[in-house]
Specification:
By secondary structure, the protein is of the alpha+beta class. It has three domains: 116 residues; 83 residues, PDZ domain (Pdz3 Domain), CATH 2.30.42.10; 214 residues, MetI-like (MetI-like fold, Orthogonal Bundle). The protein is 58% helix and 11% strand. It is extended. The protein starts with a strand and ends in a 10-residue tail after the last helix.
């Protein structure tokens, strides 16, 4: 007992009060997160089900909370002793590790009682098997289990499930991924003769306490990391955790573009073996045949470029002039116009598709200009996109002009400069970051546009890349998803380049206006 200390002022290896305080902090986290699970499963899920709504969000959230609950509790235990590290480092570490051990026991008891975590029931065929030449060899059967009732015997060689050859490992993986009461049509070799038996999976309890040891090691490691974790890294780790699903998606996209096919994040060849790297998915860059469609990717890319550039130029010209007028001039209807632009920005584009179709059909009949701005014309499509982008552009440009002091403009006017010259030579250079940011957003909006081009373009001569991607996904024929991923990656390349080199200007658009160049 001499090693125990009862206060921070008493020397010793362990401070009981600090230990109890650390355990309390961890238990508070456990109770709070457990209450969230109870609310989601016992109250919110039945409430939503009572109004005949089929949803899985509450179940998913509850499972996510259950998954992270132990780790958050261990992090809380480690964080609780960080203020003691400078004075009593050994005492702080021992306190946190002992508190983690107590929390681990409490959480493990909860997992055991409610069949969670390592004790969650798993799908089983109630038999054991081992690897053998040609398949999986049955070693033992649970007396009275589903495998024995179906006629499986010890010594049977399972060669396939339906027509798919299996090994011991693949069979175990198939069983683990299956739901309760899933039928397994097993091809079995017995005494040199082949037969087929159907066995249905059941949920089997998992009471193996040996599985707790890896969890205890992980708990102690998490606590140790929490004790010595540099605090300045925390925001970046949280941001990385939030972005992780998105990053995994892009990682899969890159892998898929250079492989025959993928299973998760694993590239596979034509026989299902790991590997299978190929450049064949990028053959569309050099030929006209893409998944059976006789089109040129460069013509489609040119259509996307025309729509994006035309949209960017028109939005910048009109938005900058309109923003200047609304910021610097008083005229009748100014407030009404500002309100009207907000209403237009809130209008869903889908509600105007039919009226716009009639307008574009009429414009197509106008002499000279009809062949450029009518239906099924890239410039005409970009004009429709401009109409929906202008309200936002006008408001953004007005915000940038509002941030320029009046003294600069007055000085130019007093020196004899005209309104146009003041606008063009004095004020526009002041809002160059805003112009670049709006231009980039307008370009990306036109480059990634789908709804308007899909509605008002037909044929390979006018469709853009997003519409072409949709055409690659055929409901009646097999889809080469790896080539779809390659075309999608090809479309993303300009966007990646723009964001890499223009991050600083893009951030300005969220600030509501910034003077001068950055």
């Amino acid at each position: 007992m001499a090693a125990l200390a009862h206060s921070d002022d008493t020397p010793g290896v362990l401070d009981v009060h600090s230990l109890l305080r650390t355990i309390r902090n961890g238990l508070i986290v456990v109770v709070a997160l457990s209450l969230i699970v109870v609310i989601l499963t016992a109250f919110l899920r039945p409430l939503i089900a009572s109004v005949k709504v089929d949803e899985s969000v509450t179940t998913t959230l509850a499972q996510l909370v259950i998954l992270v609950l132990p780790y958050i509790a261990y992090i809380a235990a480690g964080s609780a002793v960080r203020d003691q590290l400078s004075d009593h480092p050994l005492r702080a570490v021992l306190t946190a590790l002992l508190a983690t051990l107590v929390l681990f026991v409490v959480i493990s008891i909860g997992h055991f009682v409610f069949h969670l975590g390592p004790f969650v029931p798993t799908s089983s065929l109630e038999m054991t098997f081992t690897e053998a030449e040609g398949g999986a060899l049955v070693e033992s059967l649970v007396p009275g289990g589903v495998a024995e009732e179906a006629g499986v015997q010890v010594g049977d060689l399972i060669t396939a499930v339906r027509r798919d050859p299996v090994t011991s490992g693949t069979l175990s993986a198939l069983i683990a991924r299956s739901a309760e009461d899933s039928p397994f049509r097993l091809r079995i070799v017995r005494g040199g003769e082949e037969t087929q038996l159907t066995v249905r999976t059941v949920l089997a309890g998992n009471d193996d306490l040996g599985k707790l040891l890896p969890g205890l090691v992980v708990a102690l490691i998490v606590t140790a990391v929490a004790i010595f974790w540099p605090g300045q890294w925390t925001p970046y780790v949280i941001l990385l955790a939030i972005l992780l699903p998105l990053l995994i998606g892009y990682f899969w996209l890159i892998i898929a573009t250079f492989s025959y096919r993928t299973e998760g994040l694993i590239p596979l060849d034509g026989q299902g073996n790991v590997g299978g790297w190929t450049l064949n998915n990028w053959n569309f860059l050099f030929g006209a045949d893409i998944s059976g469609l006789n089109v040129s990717i460069w013509q489609i890319t040119l259509n996307s470029l025309i729509i994006a550039v035309a949209m960017m130029v028109i939005v910048l010209l009109v938005s900058s002039m309109a923003g200047y007028a609304l910021s610097r001039m008083n005229f009748a209807g100014r407030r009404a116009f500002l309100s009207f632009t907000l209403v237009l920005h809130g209008f869903p584009a889908v509600t105007l598709l039919i009226p716009i179709f009639f307008v574009m059909s009429y414009l197509g009949k106008v002499p000279l200009v009809g062949e450029f701005i009518g239906f099924n014309k890239p410039v005409g499509i970009s004009l429709v996109m401009v109409a929906f982008e202008l309200p936002l552009g006008v408001w953004l440009m007005k915000g940038f002009f509002d941030n320029i002091p009046w003294d600069i403009e007055r000085s130019a006017l007093i020196d004899g400069a005209s309104r146009w010259r003041t606008y063009w030579e004095i004020l526009l250079p002041q809002i160059r970051p805003g112009i670049l940011a709006l231009g980039i957003f307008a370009f990306i909006g036109g480059w990634n546009a789908f709804l308007i081009p899909q509605t008002y373009s037909t044929g390979a001569g006018t469709i853009n890349l997003p519409v072409f991607l949709r055409q690659l996904i055929n409901e009646t024929a097999p889809v080469n998803w790896n080539q779809v991923a390659a075309v999608g990656m090809f479309q993303l390349i300009p966007v990646f380049i723009i964001f890499i080199f223009a991050q600083e200007y893009l951030l300005n658009i969220y600030a509501g206006g910034t003077k001068g160049s950055s």
